[in-house]
Amino acid sequence: MEYPKIRIAYRMVIDSTATGAWERYVFEDTYKEYLMQQQLYNRKENPAATFRELLAENPNAEKLHYLTGLAANSYIQQLKGHFYKVPDVLGNNFFPFEGYRLDVVNTDITDITKHRIGITFFSPLLTYLGTVNNCYLVSVNAAVAEGYDTFMFPIQPQLAICYYQDATISR
Fold first, then answer.
1. Which of 16, 17, 99, 124 is 20 to 30 A from 113 via CA?
2. pLDDT (tens digit, 9 = 90+) per residue, 89-107?
3. Which residues contact 48 (CB under 8 A, 6 or more apart)?
4. For residue range 44-67, what is the model confidence (pLDDT) as tens digits?
5. pLDDT for position 5
6. pLDDT of residue 41
């Protein structure tokens, strides 16, 4: 029997209330990066204070998501492809990811406490075996003759299937 393939995405939001060291470093460094990069898109006289105001005035400021995200690259690499905030049902902290996207939710060049970013982590392609007890039952094994090594992630806020490939399509 063939099973569908999925990718799971987990999105975390980091703001001034972050307490963990990793989140604080990401918060502070992305704010500093935003302050530098926004100058490319903002007016010299009477600059827009918030990211949303800047976007309304200059659509090219959309690039600030990517440019600000560059400051988080080394922190993301420290995770070595396993995100620690999403445990499986056994309590293992190893949500596997192979990509991420950072977005600036909003920020303010005059007030660091208004800085807010989102990071979405994307899993590798997983074999989706179904939903059991309100959990995604998945395997990293793509093709198997006798069985699958599985793990289960509870269905929860900020965790979603972001890609689905029907088993009949993958033949």
1. 99
2. 998 877 889 999 999 999 9
3. 42, 54, 56, 57
4. 999 999 999 999 999 999 999 999
5. 93
6. 97
Distances (CA, A) of 2 to 5, 67, 83, 85, 147: 9, 41, 28, 31, 12
Q: How far apart are alpha carbons 149 and 155 in whole angstroms?
A: 19
Hey, what are 50's tokens? 């918030």
Strands (DSSP E) found in the chain: 5-14, 82-83, 95-96, 99-106, 116-122, 126-132, 135-139, 151-154, 159-165
Spatial neighbors of 65 by CB under 8 A, at least 6 apart, are 101, 102, 103, 104
Other residues' Cβ atoms within 10 Å of the Cβ of residue 104: 25
Of 56, 71, 142, 69, which Cα lies nearest the Cα of 101?
69
What is the average pLDDT value for the chain, to the nearest integer? 92
